[in-house]
Amino acid sequence: MLIYFLPAIILLGILTSYEDIKFGKIKNKGIVASLVYALVVYFFLIIFYMSVGSLRGEYLAELVTNFLFSISVGFGMWYFGLWTAGDGKLFIAFSTLVPLSVYSNGYQAWIPSIT
Predict the structure, then answer these.
(1) Cβ-count burial of 61 within 10 angstroms (0-12 exposed, 13-18 middle, 19+ buried)?
(2) Which of 12, 31, 53, 69 is spaced 20 to 30 Å from 38 by Cα?
């Protein structure tokens, strides 16, 4: 499943690194585009796995929980002054782009992006 997300991960990493080094800011365009890309890919993957009958309800629950957890951590780190807002949004975007199957080492059920 990583093959569907790897181009967006690499592109977002290069784009945000360049913007952060050059301008000292991480712009919302790349973050929003990567979130939309991730949601579209997950939508089509869910439709595909539903059609072949191999979609697990636990996977969807963990996917949603991981997304909500990354929002909470990203916002919390910004709110308490540990990160800038751009870093929090970037954490949310990368947590959404990385499929749960990547977290096989050190997998924490329901919140794998903590790894």
Answers:
(1) exposed
(2) 53
Q: What's the whole-model pTM score? A: 0.85
Measured CA distances, 78 to 10, 19, 34, 71, 91 (Å): 24, 19, 20, 11, 11
For the chain, the straight-line distance linking the first and the last C-alpha, in angstroms and rounded, comes to: 19
Amino acid at 65: T
Q: 30: number of CA atoms within 13 Å, CB side?
A: 22
The full 3-state SS of the chain, as one line of letters, equals CHHHHHHHHHHHHHHHHHHHHHHCCCCHHHHHHHHHHHHHHHHHHHHHHHHHCCCCHHHHHHHHHHHHHHHHHHHHHHHCCCCCHHHHHHHHHHHHHCCHHHHHCCCCCCCHHHC
| Token pair listed for 20 | 């952060």
Q: What is the pLDDT of residues 40-93, one digit of tens each?
A: 999 999 999 989 988 888 888 989 998 999 999 999 999 999 999 999 999 999
